[in-house]
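Box 3.1 A note on notation
Throughout this textbook, protein chains are presented in two layers. The first layer is the amino acid sequence; the second is a token string describing backbone geometry. Keep the layers aligned when reading.
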Amino acid sequence: MKILHFSDTHLGYNDLDILDENNVNQREADFYDAFTHVVQQIEEIKPDYIIHTGDLFHRSSPSNRAITFALEQFSRINSFGIPFVIIAGNHSTPRTNLSSPILKIFESYENIYLSYSQEYKKIEFDNIVFHTLPHMNDDTRALEQIEKCESNIDKTKKNIMMLHCSVGAWYLMQEFGEWVYPTDKEYIFQSMDYVALGHWHGFGSVGKHENVYYSGSTERTSLNDKRNSKGFILANIDESLDIEYKEINIRPIILKQIDCENYEEEIKSLDVSDTKDAIVEVKLINLTALQSIDIQNKEIKELFEDAMSVSIKREFKKNTNDVSVDDIEALSLEDYFLEHIKEDDKENDRLKLKVQELFSKYEEANNDTV
């Protein structure tokens, strides 16, 4: 049995104020292209079931363009005759009861099964049960719904749990008001053949659980997400679970670093051959306050004339007398921590990866990108 799992498609997301040839925001078009690529893969792979674990749209009240695109693609998916189960994420869930859930627009499709009412819903077929738990604004209500899920486990069939929440990262998410799955209820995962998660934008398993996976998003809503590849999961569920990650091709984010201690030499040797149509992030390091005045952003951007966009970060030289308070504030908090842990040689590598992971998740949450 093959289940194709994708998530966090954020249709309607736009950024950078760059238009394509159709006068559509280029980043918005990139998200539509990524979704279309997954649909093409669905048609080729022909899985037994398709699941989407939330945040289909970037906003609970998406634009007409985003809705039109989604309706066209859902009509195409529906024509494949494959059951498609989708749950609501926090971006698709209204904050009040005064707004109608956007996923209701797909109720007329015979092969599409929806779960969006902030409550547990059991979606059952001949040989499999999907236990759906969409995003919930109320933690108390969420606990009640998890208990309903537990009571509906069918040991005669395959059991798939679908969630849009944070699992195992309460220390990051609670202060942002997102739904965090309770740790003391994680034992339920052991009764499931597969637990499909949405909300975090990076692919990966969760903690000690061998059957619990985030598929990740299909595009990047933050430059800080550049470390994650994008794609979907093909879960093969028979006697055992086999997870295959399928990466899709999206617009690259390229990081370039220029050491300003040797600025002229660095500029001469700079390789821009891989930046065509890319989102480029340039990091100027070892800057002095005087250099920062002399080196203009326009001058840097002109080096990458074939890139789609160029952003510039400035990191000032440390331990010099000409560093001002403004210079220090220009350092990112992530870089500050990474500098600090360099003092511990034994733990540096392990801590570096953990700090980068935590700041990636913090950046997503703090910038409304999950």
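Residues 322-331 have pLDDT under 50 and may be disordered. DSSP finds ten helices and 15 strands in the chain.
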